[in-house]
Design brief:
Number of strands: 0
Helix content: 40-55%
Distance between the termini: 71 Å
Strand content: under 5%
Radius of gyration: 29 Å
Order of helices and strands: HHH
C-alpha cells in the first residue's frame, strides 16, 4: 500500500513540474515579445540615462556580423561530406603530429 502512495505522490509531483515548465515557457515567450513603456526617470537619477527610457533595438551578436559590420544571412555552419578513408587519414595525421606521439617514438628507438 505504501508503494502505491509513493507512486501516486511522485506522479502528482511530476505533473506539477511539467505543468510549471510549460507555463514558464509560454510566459517567457510572451514576455519576450512585450515592449516596455518608457518610465519617467526617478529623482535620484535625473539627467542620467534611464534603462527603461531606452528604445528597444535589436543588437546582433558580434559573431553574426561580417568584417564590414553587416548582418550575415548565410548559414554559419556548413558541413561537407567526407569518406571514411579521408577521415582516417586526417585523424592519423593529427595523431602523428601530437606531442605525446613524438616522445613515444624516441623511447622506442
Amino acid at each position: 500500500m505504501l508503494h502505491l502512495l509513493y507512486i501516486l505522490a511522485f506522479t502528482i509531483l511530476a505533473f506539477i513540474a511539467v505543468a510549471n515548465l510549460i507555463r514558464n515557457l509560454v510566459m517567457f515567450s510572451f514576455d519576450r515579445e512585450r515592449t516596455y513603456a518608457t518610465k519617467p526617470s526617478s529623482i535620484g537619477n535625473q539627467g542620467n540615462f534611464d534603462y527603461y527610457a531606452s528604445k528597444k533595438r535589436f543588437i546582433p551578436h558580434p559573431e553574426l556580423l561580417d568584417s564590414a559590420g553587416n548582418l550575415i544571412k548565410e548559414p554559419l555552419l556548413v558541413m561537407r561530406s567526407i569518406n571514411v578513408e579521408d577521415a582516417r587519414q586526417q585523424l592519423d595525421a593529427l595523431y602523428e603530429a601530437s606531442p605525446g606521439q613524438k616522445s613515444e617514438r624516441q623511447e622506442e628507438a
